[in-house]
Amino acid sequence: MTGVKTNERPGTRAVLKHSGVSAYKAREVLDLIRGKDYQRASEILEYCDREVATVIGKVLHSAAANAFHNDGIEAEELFVSACFADEGATLKRWRPRARGRATRIRKRTCHVTVIVSRMSEEELNRRRAHVAAEQADRRARRVAGARRQGRASAAAKGETSEAPAVEAAVEQALAGDEDEQADGDHDAAGDEDEQADGDHDAAGDEETSD
To answer: What is the structure's pLDDT at 17?
Structure first.
């Protein structure tokens, strides 16, 4: 019994045709992100020193944008279920050599495909619980530090009651949590704008290659 065909694999895909890089070089980078979640795959491609990683990153962002706009799936719930590079047309060129001779140059191209799918409910629940635990632990450490700071300031001032200083320090720490959350929302909005710009660049590259 044969497996699932390449064009029948489930998930949301993005395809880049006639990329000016060999399939061998693209596959070496694709092997790094296969099976990773969207955020982790984006980080790997961002810090990868291969030039083709920039092109593959645009294809990955395009696939995530397709999943959001077409299927309504958030980028945080996606992972790279499949990614592959097929060989494209080979351009034949000639290079002049000594004694009037010439040698052939083969300029390889490839077709890059990235397929993203939604993670299972168990995996999503595990990730959400992990994030919630980290936030609760960070909040508890900040409140405990604020209480120690309030007691120290009250002792330095010679106050008989530490409660007002401790309450003020805790309120300031909680306000800092709200500001940090607002900054995170702002950064998330900026990431969405960068993702839209990346999708636009990927579309421009496809038009140029055509």
So the answer is: 95
| C-alpha closest to that of 112 among 18, 1, 11 | 18
Both 111 and 167 in a single domain? no
Task: Evaluate the CA torsion angle 42, 35, 29, 72 in order and state its sign.
Answer: negative
Please check whether residues 92 and 184 belong to one and the same domain: no
Q: What is the pLDDT of residue 209?
A: 47
Residue 20: give its domain's CATH number: 3.90.470.10
Which whole number is the average pLDDT over 91-117?
94
Please count the structural domains in the chain. 2
Please tell me the pTM assigned to this model. 0.65
My answer on whether 61 and 136 are in the same domain is no
Q: Which pLDDT value is given to residue 189? A: 56
Q: Do residues 205 and 14 make contact, with C-beta atoms less than 8 angstroms apart?
A: no
- Please return the burial class of 38, using the count of CB atoms within 10 Å of its CB with bins 0-12, 13-18 and 19+: buried
The residues near 120 (Cβ < 8 Å, ≥ 6 apart) are none
Residue with the bigger pLDDT between 131 and 119: it is: 119
Name the residue range of residue 140's domain.
Answer: 124-189
